[in-house]
Amino acid sequence: MTLSRHLKKYVLCVASALSVVVSANAHAGELVVSAAASLTNAFKAVGDAFEQQHPGTKVLLNFGASDVLMQQIVKGAPADVFASADQKAMDKAAAEKVIVPSTRRDFAANSLVLIVPADSHFTPTSLNELTAASVKRVAFGDPASVPIGRYTQGALQAAGVWDAVSAKAVLAANVRQSLDYVARGEVDAGFVFGTDAAIMPDKVKVAMTLPTQTPVTYPIARVEGSHQAADAQAFIDFVLSPAGQAVLAKYGFKPAH
Known about the structure:
The chain is an alpha/beta fold. Helices cover 41% and strands 21% of the residues. The protein has a five-stranded mixed sheet. Strands 7-6-8-5-9 form a five-stranded mixed sheet, with helices on both faces. The radius of gyration is 20 Å and the shape is elongated.
């Protein structure tokens, strides 16, 4: 066996061992929900409301870029429910056979917005203004792994300014990082979801709400092989229920349909 094969086998063994350790930490009665970063505030409230209705269940929330979460699940990280910020991430999860397709539902909608620091004198009214020499840095999620990045790329391509603006890109690991870059004034502008901009009204201001090539919708599904299948389905049902939708609405999310 070659050295590279030995190394590959060792890495697989370590990954397997880590998966077993992480899985052991998810106890009975604990529901692991992996959700898009933009859902952070809303799903914390949803989790609390769900626990009140299901006293025997503890909701453990794992937030991050949708594609990163999907890859974690593929590699064996414990998860019972997956909620992504676009359809492509969920499509990838379906292709990898890590979700139960019959449980997939769209549960919320959002908008793509261009934001600038609250104290900025630069308030663009068209995407073409981002090509100006005075604009040095524009933040948005990496289109390869972050839904907000894919929505942004689509909007910039439709406006014919993708090449010019992407040359100024400060790529974020998730939408909340993009928000932070703008809030701290480290970039001239950035792309986030409308719900993200709303949580920092004192730090950022919305310059434009942009059309997207595909609607900004959020799907949710039960993870294949979940040891908490009943609770996972109950959580999905709660998110889709009037009570769950009311919580999401408080954080600016719109109905999916």
